[in-house]
Automatic annotation (TrEMBL):
Top-rank lineage group of the source organism: Eukaryota
Keyword presence, Transport: no
The name this protein goes by in its record: Extradiol ring-cleavage dioxygenase class III enzyme subunit B domain-containing protein
Gene Ontology molecular function: any one: zinc ion binding
InterPro entries attached to this UniProt entry: Extradiol_dOase_DODA (IPR014436), Xdiol_dOase_suB (IPR004183)
Native species: Phytophthora nicotianae
CDD domains for the chain: 45_DOPA_Dioxygenase (cd07363)
Keywords assigned: Metal-binding, Oxidoreductase, Zinc
Family: Belongs to the DODA-type extradiol aromatic ring-opening dioxygenase family.
Cofactor(s) this protein cannot do without: Zn(2+)
Length: 224
C-alpha cells in the first residue's frame, strides 16, 4: 500500500487576528460573513474520514521576513507571539495562542531543503491579497490565481508551474502584492501540493473584504 500523502493548503487568513476577536469582523468586512466559517470547516474537509491525522503541521508564513538571504525556520519549542499589525482594538493585542514547536522536526525540514540547495537557517523565535490601499487589479489577480491553481482549470502541471513561478507578471499582481512576502507561501504550497496526475487544487472561497481583500483558499490532495 502506498504511503499516505497529506494534503497541502494555501490559506488567506485576513488582516490581523480577525477570527479570534469578538469585535472587528462585521466592521471590517462588508461583502461577506462566510470567511470564518470557511476556515473553521477547512480541516474537516482536508481530513473528512478522521483518519491519517497529522502529528504536526508545517506552516509557511509571510509574517517573519528573513534578515538574510534564504529562509528561516523557527526551532523554538514554544514560539512567542508576534503582533505585527496595527489599528485593531486592544483585544487584538491580548490574544495568546500557545503554539507548540518541534525543534527536531525543524532540523529535518532544514536538512531536506539543503539537499535541494535552498538556503535556510534555524532561528529560535517564533491573505494572499495584502495591499489594502489599492483596489484596482484585485479581481483580475484573483481570476488569474483561480485559472492557475483551481482544479477546474485545464492547464497542465507544467503550465501551472510556469505561471505560478512568474506570478509577478500576472494581471493585477503589482496592485495585489506590491511586496512579494504575503504571496510566497502560496508559491510554496503550490509546489508542495501539485502532482502530475492531478495538479489542480480544490477552492474554498470565503468572499471579499473592502471589495479588494480576497479570502480565497486552495487545497491539494483532499480526501473529499
Amino acid at each position: 500500500m502506498p504511503a499516505f500523502r497529506h494534503p497541502v493548503a494555501a490559506i488567506s487568513h485576513g488582516p490581523g487576528p480577525l477570527w479570534l476577536i469578538s469585535s472587528g469582523f462585521d466592521e471590517m468586512v462588508r461583502d461577506t460573513v462566510t470567511a470564518p466559517e470557511v476556515l473553521r470547516s477547512l480541516f474537516g474537509k482536508l481530513y473528512p474520514k478522521d483518519e491519517n491525522l497529522p502529528k504536526r503541521i508545517l506552516l509557511v508564513s509571510a509574517h517573519f521576513e528573513s534578515s538574510s538571504s534564504g529562509f528561516e525556520i523557527s526551532n523554538a519549542a514554544n514560539p512567542e507571539m508576534i503582533y505585527d499589525y496595527y489599528g485593531f482594538s486592544e483585544e487584538a493585542y491580548e490574544v495568546k495562542y500557545p503554539a507548540k514547536g518541534d525543534p527536531a522536526f525543524a532540523q529535518r525540514v532544514k536538512e531536506q531543503l539543503e539537499k535541494d540547495h535552498i538556503k535556510v537557517k534555524l532561528v529560535n523565535q517564533g491573505t494572499h491579497r495584502r495591499n489594502p490601499t489599492l483596489i484596482e487589479g484585485a479581481k483580475a489577480f484573483q481570476n488569474w490565481l483561480d485559472s492557475t491553481l483551481a482544479s477546474d482549470s485545464k492547464l497542465t502541471m507544467e503550465e501551472r508551474s510556469e505561471q505560478i513561478t512568474n506570478w509577478h507578471n500576472a494581471p493585477g499582481a503589482k496592485f495585489a502584492h506590491s511586496s512579494p512576502d504575503h504571496f510566497l507561501p502560496f508559491v510554496v504550497a503550490a509546489g508542495a501540493g501539485m502532482e502530475e496526475k492531478e495538479p489542480g487544487a480544490k477552492t474554498f472561497f470565503g468572499g471579499w473584504a473592502f471589495d479588494q481583500l480576497s479570502f480565497a483558499n486552495y487545497a491539494w490532495g483532499t480526501q473529499e
